[in-house]
């Protein structure tokens, strides 16, 4: 999403928060029967392409951009480059396989040998322009370099690196497009102008899938985009608000839904076109909108208000004083907020989103997440 501003250190009482974190993490693990029931027979290998919704440290590693506390306070107890108080959806998906979290491709000092894949996602990424770092096209180019170099080292006798079979059996996740739509609205384009850009965005996703397929990839997991109009940042920025019954921007959500429909049709088309492929389309929009519309049912309060920001209700967001900037306000650790910083979700929300994804109820075709490593 939009690049974060510098974040400052949040003081807290370590013993109390450590106890709370331990309890909360235990409860989250208890809600993940899929982690125990994973049927993987082969080592799960995942390559992820996307934006800040799944960036596990790419921006911090690649550009040295500081992402400080309070990011990471709830689980890791330190900033890790994730724009959240804790784990992201991609972290919970890896956890469901009893696999390690994905390391950023750009992390040269993380100690990872990338034996379980790599994360190419970077904050702020979009599909267009295609040759601007770190667009989807650039991320795929990075993957091609990573694969070529890995196989070169394997052929030279290196061990514990991903071989040709590993790349062939890996899962390729794509979670991108939100910035393309959001940035178009930010440029004051009309709804019609924004929606006219959708076919070009979809073409880039199509090209990425085909390139990965031509490299031997056969298993794809593609997320649609969430309800942009429910993000506190957008609600604060837009002066003339066309709100739906739940307080979200109707035009932004309508554009997201149109994008999702075209993406769904693309997945159908690619299933027919790409022999022996499995392409799973996941309705992230429906999961997130349900969380917002029925927030009290899930135990959340103020679904359109950021936990970390400034300005207080209704959105606690101000572009001049974002999360971590001097003057920011942050909710108490343990507060039940859906939104973390005006754009990204809290760990508590991400854990529920992950459980819905793992349920298969929002996947087309209905497929368990561990399908790629079962045989």
From TrEMBL:
Presence of keyword Magnesium: no
Signal peptide: 1-37
Stated name of the protein: GDSL esterase/lipase At1g09390
MF-aspect GO terms: hydrolase activity, acting on ester bonds
Top-rank taxon: Eukaryota
UniProt-listed SUPFAM superfamilies: SGNH hydrolase
Family the entry assigns: Belongs to the 'GDSL' lipolytic enzyme family.
Keywords, sorted A to Z: Glycoprotein, Hydrolase, Signal
């Amino acid at each position: 999403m939009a690049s974060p501003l510098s974040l400052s250190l949040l003081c807290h009482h370590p013993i109390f928060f450590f106890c709370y974190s331990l309890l909360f993490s235990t409860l989250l693990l208890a809600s993940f029967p899929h982690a125990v029931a994973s049927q993987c027979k082969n080592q799960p290998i995942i390559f992820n392409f996307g934006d800040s919704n799944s960036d596990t440290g790419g921006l911090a590693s690649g550009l040295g951009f500081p992402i400080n506390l309070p990011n990471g306070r709830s689980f890791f107890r330190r900033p890790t480059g994730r724009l959240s108080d804790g784990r992201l959806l991609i972290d919970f998906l890896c956890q469901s396989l009893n696999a390690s979290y994905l390391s950023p491709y750009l992390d040269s000092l993380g100690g990872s040998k990338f034996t379980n894949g790599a994360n190419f996602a970077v904050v702020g990424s979009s599909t267009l322009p295609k040759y601007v770092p770190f667009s989807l096209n650039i991320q795929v180019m990075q993957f091609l370099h990573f694969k070529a170099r890995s196989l070169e080292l394997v052929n030279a006798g290196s061990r514990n690196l991903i071989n040709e079979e590993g790349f062939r059996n890996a899962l390729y996740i794509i979670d991108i497009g939100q910035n393309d739509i959001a940035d178009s609205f930010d440029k004051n384009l009309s709804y019609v102008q924004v929606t006219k850009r959708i076919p070009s965005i979809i073409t880039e996703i199509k090209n990425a899938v085909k390139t990965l397929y031509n490299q031997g990839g056969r298993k794809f997991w593609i997320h649609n985009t969430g309800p942009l109009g429910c993000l506190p940042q957008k609600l604060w920025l837009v002066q003339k608000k066309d709100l739906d019954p739940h307080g979200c921007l109707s035009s932004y959500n309508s554009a997201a839904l149109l994008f999702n429909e075209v993406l769904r049709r693309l997945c159908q088309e690619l299933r027919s076109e790409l022999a022996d492929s499995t392409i799973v389309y996941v309705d992230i929009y429906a999961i997130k909108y349900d969380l917002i519309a029925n927030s009290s049912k899930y135990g959340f309060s103020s679904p359109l208000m950021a936990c970390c920001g400034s300005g207080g209700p209704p959105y606690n967001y101000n572009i001049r004083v974002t999360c971590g900037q001097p003057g920011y306000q942050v909710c108490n650790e343990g507060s039940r907020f859906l939104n973390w910083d005006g754009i990204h979700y809290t760990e508590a929300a991400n854990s529920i989103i992950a459980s819905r994804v793992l349920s298969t109820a929002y996947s087309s075709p209905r497929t368990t997440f561990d399908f790629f490593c079962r045989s």
